[in-house]
Amino acid sequence: MSYTLRYFFLFCLTFLFATHVNSQNTPTDYDQYLIKRDSLLTLDSLLYFDADVTLSSEEKILNKQLKHLQGKMLAHYKANHFFPPARNFYQSKEHIESTTLFRFINKMPKGGILHLHIGAIGDADWVLHKAWDTPEMYVYWSDDNRNVKGAFQAFKKEDAPQGFVQVHQLINEQPETYQEMRSLLVFEEEMNADSVDIWKEFELIFARIDMFINYAPIYEDYLVHGLQLLAEDNIQHAELRGPFLDVFYDLDNKPGSLGIEAHAETYERIYKRITSIDPDFTFKIIHCSLRFEDRTTIWNEMEKVYAYRQQYPELIKGFDMVAEEDAGYSTLYHAKEYLRLDSLERQYDVDLPLYLHDGESNWPSESNLYDALLLDTKRIGHGFNLFRFPALVELVKQRDVPMEINPLSNQILGYIRDLRNHPASTYLRRGINCTINSDDPLIFDYHGLSYDFWSVFLAWELDLASLKKLARNSIEYSVLEEDEKVEALRVWEERWGDFIEEVVEGFSF
Ligand SMILES: [Zn+2]
User: Fold this and answer.
1) Could you tell me the pTM of the whole model?
2) How far is CA 314 from CA 274, 308, 370, 480, in A?
3) Rounded mean pLDDT of the chain?
4) Cα(445) to centroid(ligand 1), Å
5) pLDDT digit string, tens, across residues 325-336
6) How many angstroms from the chain centroid is the CA of residue 265?
């Protein structure tokens, strides 16, 4: 429903309220108070992001059961003074998995995941077993700080530098090192540092896994495995953020020498393999550069990505810049490059839409969102601090710029402790369209989107209409072309219909 239409309804409601009160001879003060109160509640609900969702009769039945379950769970948590979305995720992970709500959300067709980093989509045990089974995979296993302890890289035996140990041999001879390596790849309950220290840990993990993933013989299996985990969580579309550059290597070729064609061909094989698991599964790439790179490096990467998008327009869909915002260059610092992109657009005769990671900060003075919107970002990655900028809130609503919300990532990285206070709850109520994402699930030691949906369903007291709208948004605001979107929505609606039928008939709440 458009805002104009909503305000028209609002006007009518106020009018009805006024005439109702005038027509009553003796309404008590309390009656009048309740009428006014209801009007305000209705007025607000018309502004919610899901105000245009109409539930079918079956969905209404299901919504009743779901809200009943939510009410029971909230009462239980209140009585026990322990509300999982307000606490450290790792204290509740097993509990979450044991709940009826988790089984329900796991089954729910969630549409797409629009914010997910290639270096962190899989499972840590899969990574370790693959490294263990790959004879040429080595790990830096020394505390001398000359390299990152736990960093993987493939070598010919005679080329392995000092400090690198064959993973196969290390785990076979010292089985306890498996668990040590695992703890260097994932966050755990004990981690209780402030957000700055957590970011340091976070970047170390990417440094450890980088040369494991980019080893050409492993990349394909890693990505198929990661996408399969998404499909198992009833996700049908993934937008992967990562560098689409010549970064692959093998034992005879250093990064930069295999050619971008090797990267693109790998994606073709990945596509064939994932569609043999789910024939309707789709994925696309949003290239990411690092925000702490200098202007020349960024410009050179932008130029390459334009050339690659011209070559692979079906695969490369956009550009982004990642890494810790508070530590890296601001978006304003790189605005000069962004403002020159039209010259590359003319040169390569192709566009390169921006999907900028911005607003992932707790600092009131951090103002990257101004630049993201001025530069016409198609979506906002995070937008955590949007609430601090009233003019931008209005702009986001007017332009209908969707937000890629990463609830557990924000909590684990220390931006917010209690998810009830997450600003996205307010965005949804103000009519800003959002999607739910998991950012870096490998590092956070979970899979898919169910944990995030579980947490916000309770923390933001959502209902079936909001879950439906969030899932639908993930396709509506995806990078898919219009015809692909129509097809993806058809698939999602069919799956959603089957899900509702199955749950109404046989799910035990
Ligand atoms: Zn991210």
Assistant:
1) 0.93
2) 17, 11, 30, 9
3) 93
4) 16
5) 888 899 999 999
6) 26
